[in-house]
């Protein structure tokens, strides 16, 4: 059953593959070793090493394992998954979570607190009803962490969060930390209370920061059942040498995260043909700041356009400036907020954070630092003195301007570590939205060289985990059950016994059956397949079959095989009706009086702060070596009006007509030009921005036009071009050694269900199917129990059967339903979705169009159609199709 917990938790928390793999490994470890106070550490190590050879030693007096995941992959969410699993599967109720510093301590406290934006247990049902009790270094002395029937239920999970740096400070000089001192509310020291628990698990975040510290040695005396370490840097420094951890059981390095697209693409920027000899220190510093602003402003526009075009949340980027010291930080702030720096545009938008600040000034700036992710926050530039430390968990850092001395390796590692998290959780395919840029004119080549070294964190890293298959998938041809029934078949998948004896015994009859199927394909304009059984149609089919089988030369009487074509035709048409579902071909055509265009509106361009560019800024990706220029192309043709620079580009879009939309185009372009004039110094600068940033400005206008696009038809005409459509064989890709699994068998394998083949069906129109998730497999069980005819359309099937198109904003797509089913009284299109996706805009747009298709399909044939949108958690074998239809039929607009 514990494998079920892995799958359930991974699904509920939407874990990424590296997180899911880590959780699976924890499950495997718990199957190998039974952890309790009497666990023999040496025997536990031997058992784990036999399965995971990369683990050399626990390096502690208790079993402790390290999961080394790249920054940005989601270590905090993984900690939540670990806790949920250990509670569900192993009954663990007590946990201690260690943070290396105050920043991460505060972040972890927030992330483990219900109703916060990044709550780690979102989706875990039992924690929604009875959330864990959170005990911190600030409140443990109150006794809230001590179990008492008077205060807390015995089933509540207790999560203790402590800041190890605070404990380190308390044990200096050999002192005992406060946690070990007597507490009047507890009746003993809280440390002693924890050490007596028989189910304590220790989780260590960023464990490389404090692995050998006095504080963690004190905590180790708790002797937990199990230690789980998480870090992106599984090594400790001994002088100039790095000592790798010996207890790493799973590693997912930055190079893998870059390849898989889980983090931003790191890049370094300089001026094209830059010569450092032309600049002194002050002028170079200002140049880097100004170019950082250029990149920042372009990124801001690109993010705004992407959010508008895709109806996504708005992301406000910020730029990080790394200062030499506190005095330097203050000087930089004065420069950036001065009227001569982009006309004072960044006054009040700079946060300066360093250890020299005191009192209210420091509190105010720390608050700015913590709220910089809020789109409504005004901070666009953060000046920081300290090295870029762990725990500043933001997704909207896009530009870094280092103005202190770093060696190239440190600069890459620290800059990348803080800025690679993606605001939308995945790359979106737009370079500026998917990229983190380091502005470093003076160190450009050094950084490129460092990134290209074999040992660079961008290039190297062995993924420690499951074996990667070395053999490629092979296609598996699956004929329809109708073809198998009529004509017979050999093994569908080598090594299986899926053979079918043909319904017709002789080759001549089988030839007549094939000819009958070919003729049926030409008769699909009939209203229903049942019309094939009318006397008139049967005679017509038999005549065409005889014609197709007539030999070129006449055969001698008594030699040719005698075939009763009429009987073959009658049997084939009956089998066709029994082993197919009539799916009409429906096309919805807007009437001729349909209208479309753009509503009148005012342009929103307050976010645009693009600046004149004197030279091209060169940006090079460190991982894939792609190059981009902030200003591209040669000089541009001169226009009489400034608005024409924008209008000329706008009319290149296919859905914009100059003749029909000229008034709106000039209005919007005029508003953009007026906005540029409002903050730029003169007309030359306005022209510079219009030319240098033309694409960004045009995209800004076009994105807002799409928000105001309308398409209306006073009526629409439904054309049914076919009453039914003939099924054809399917092709699946599967590993070469794949065996067909019985579809009723629960999926407890560690492999991806999407790579498996399933069979054993009685009612499916194909002998083999694939499923995208286990809830889909369970839904197939429901259909089989219901004795409903059904199948899962492949992408090719969907294009053949369904002309269902949806639109969300400017995005258009073709909808492919998960299942098609038919009972005695009803036909269904069915979609299985995760509970969290049931209200997704795109899901509902697809559902609206599918429901409309069903309404039109119901107007013909002998059975109505319905569209079911079913949450995956509602599907189990106790359900009936009728019951699910009663609860989840979607009627649409």
Which structural class do the helices and strands define?
alpha/beta
The overall strand count is: 31
Approximate helicity band:
25-40%
Write down the overall geometry.
globular
Beta fraction:
15-25%
Distance between the termini: 42 Å
Q: Largest beta sheet: what is the strand line-up?
A: 12-13-11-14-15-10-19-20
Radius of gyration from the alpha-carbon trace, in angstroms: 33 Å
User: How large is the count of helical segments?
Assistant: 27
Poorly predicted regions: 148-154, 459-473, 492-497, 632-636
Give the mean pLDDT.
80
What tags apply to this protein structure?
893 residues; globular; 27 helices; 31 strands; alpha/beta
How does this model look, in words?
- The chain has 893 residues and is an alpha/beta fold.
- It is 36% helix and 17% strand.
- It is built from 27 helices and 31 strands.
- An eight-stranded mixed β-sheet has the order 12-13-11-14-15-10-19-20, with helices on both faces. The protein has a seven-stranded parallel β-sheet with strand order 3-4-2-5-6-1-9.
- Helix 9 (214-220) links the parallel strand 5 and strand 6.
- Helix 18 (535-549) crosses helix 19 (565-578).
- It is globular, with a radius of gyration of 33 Å.
- It starts with a helix and ends in a 5-residue tail after the last helix.
């Amino acid at each position: 059953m514990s494998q079920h917990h892995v799958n359930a938790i991974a699904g509920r928390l939407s874990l990424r593959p590296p997180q899911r793999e880590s959780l699976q490994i924890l499950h495997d470890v718990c199957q190998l070793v039974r952890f309790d106070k009497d666990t023999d550490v040496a025997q536990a190590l031997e058992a784990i090493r036999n399965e995971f050879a990369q683990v050399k030693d626990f390096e502690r007096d208790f079993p402790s394992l390290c999961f080394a995941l790249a920054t940005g992959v989601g270590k905090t969410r993984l900690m939540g998954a670990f806790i949920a699993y250990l509670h569900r599967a192993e009954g663990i109720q007590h946990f201690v979570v260690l943070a290396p510093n105050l920043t991460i301590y505060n972040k972890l406290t927030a992330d483990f607190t219900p109703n916060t934006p990044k709550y780690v247990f979102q989706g875990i049902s039992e924690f929604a009803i009875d959330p864990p009790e959170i005990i911190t270094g600030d409140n443990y002395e109150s006794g809230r962490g001590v179990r008492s029937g008077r205060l807390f239920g015995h089933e509540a999970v207790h999560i203790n969060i402590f800041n190890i740096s605070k404990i380190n400070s308390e044990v200096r000089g050999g002192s005992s930390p406060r946690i070990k001192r007597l507490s009047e509310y507890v009746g003993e020291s809280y440390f002693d209370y924890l050490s007596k628990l028989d189910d304590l698990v220790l989780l260590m975040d960023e464990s490389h920061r404090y692995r050998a510290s006095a504080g963690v040695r004190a905590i180790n005396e708790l002797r937990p059942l199990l230690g789980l370490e998480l870090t992106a840097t599984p090594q400790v420094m001994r002088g100039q040498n790095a000592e790798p951890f010996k207890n790493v059981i799973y590693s997912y390095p930055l190079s893998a995260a870059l390849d898989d697209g889980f983090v931003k693409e790191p890049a370094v920027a300089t001026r094209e043909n830059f010569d450092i000899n032309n600049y002194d220190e002050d002028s170079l510093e200002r140049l880097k700041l100004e170019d950082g602003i250029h990149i920042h402003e372009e990124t801001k526009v690109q993010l705004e356009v992407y959010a508008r075009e895709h109806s996504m949340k708005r992301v406000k980027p910020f730029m990080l400036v790394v200062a030499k010291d506190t005095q330097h930080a203050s000087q930089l702030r004065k420069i950036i907020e001065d009227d001569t720096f982009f006309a004072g545009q960044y006054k009040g938008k700079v946060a300066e954070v360093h250890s020299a600040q005191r009192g209210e000034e420091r509190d105010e700036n720390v608050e700015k630092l913590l709220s910089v992710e809020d789109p409504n926050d005004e901070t666009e530039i953060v000046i920081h003195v300290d090295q870029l430390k762990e725990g500043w968990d933001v997704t909207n850092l896009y530009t870094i301007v280092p103005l202190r001395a770093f060696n190239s390796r440190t600069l890459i590692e620290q800059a990348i570590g803080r800025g690679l998290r993606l605001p939308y959780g995945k790359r979106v395919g737009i370079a500026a939205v998917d990229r983190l840029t380091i502005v470093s004119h003076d160190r450009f080549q050094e950084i490129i060289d460092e990134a290209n070294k074999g040992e660079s964190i961008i290039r190297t890293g062995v993924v420690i985990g499951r074996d990667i298959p070395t053999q490629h998938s092979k296609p598996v041809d699956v004929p329809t059950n109708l073809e198998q029934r009529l004509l017979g078949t050999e093994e569908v998948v080598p090594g299986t016994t899926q053979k079918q004896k043909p319904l017709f015994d002789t080759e001549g009859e089988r030839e007549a059956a094939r000819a009958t199927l070919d003729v049926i394909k030409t008769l699909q304009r009939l209203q229903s397949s049942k019309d094939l059984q009318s006397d008139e149609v049967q005679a017509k089919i038999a005549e065409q079959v005889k014609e197709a089988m007539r030999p070129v030369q006449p055969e001698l009487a008594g030699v040719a095989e005698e075939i009763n074509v009429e009987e073959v035709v009658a049997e084939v048409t009956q089998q066709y009706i029994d082993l197919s579902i009539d799916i009409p071909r429906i096309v919805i055509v807007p009437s001729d009086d349909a209208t479309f265009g753009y509503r009148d509106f005012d342009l929103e361009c307050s976010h645009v702060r693009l600046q004149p560019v004197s030279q091209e800024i060169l940006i090079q990706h460190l991982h894939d070596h792609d190059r981009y220029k902030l200003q591209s192309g040669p000089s541009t043709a001169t226009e009489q009006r400034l608005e024409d620079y924008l209008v000329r580009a706008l009319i290149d879009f296919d859905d914009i007509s100059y003749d029909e939309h000229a008034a709106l185009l000039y209005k919007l372009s005029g508003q953009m030009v007026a906005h540029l004039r409002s903050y730029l110094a003169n007309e030359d600068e306005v022209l510079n921005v219009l030319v240098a940033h033309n694409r960004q400005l045009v995209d800004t206008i076009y994105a807002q036009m799409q928000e105001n696009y309308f398409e209306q038809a006073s009526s629409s005409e439904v054309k049914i071009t076919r009453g039914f459509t003939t099924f054809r064989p399917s092709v699946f890709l599967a590993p070469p050694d794949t065996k067909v699994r019985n579809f009723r068998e629960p999926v407890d394998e560690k492999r991806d269900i999407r790579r498996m083949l399933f069979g054993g069906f009685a009612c499916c129109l194909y002998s083999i199917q694939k499923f995208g998730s286990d809830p889909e497999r369970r839904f197939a069980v429901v259909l089989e129990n219901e004795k409903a005819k059904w199948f899962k359309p492949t992408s090719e099937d969907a294009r053949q059967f369904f002309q269902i198109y949806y639109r969300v904003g400017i995005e258009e797509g073709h909808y492919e339903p998960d299942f098609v089913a038919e009972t005695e009284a009803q036909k269904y299109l069915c979609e299985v979705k995760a509970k969290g996706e049931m209200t997704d805009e795109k899901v509902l747009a697809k559902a609206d169009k599918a429901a409309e298709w069903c309404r039109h399909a119901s107007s013909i044939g002998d059975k109505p159609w319905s569209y079911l949108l079913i949450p995956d958690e509602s599907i189990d074998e106790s359900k009936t199709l009728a019951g699910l239809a009663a609860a989840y039929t979607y009627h649409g607009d």
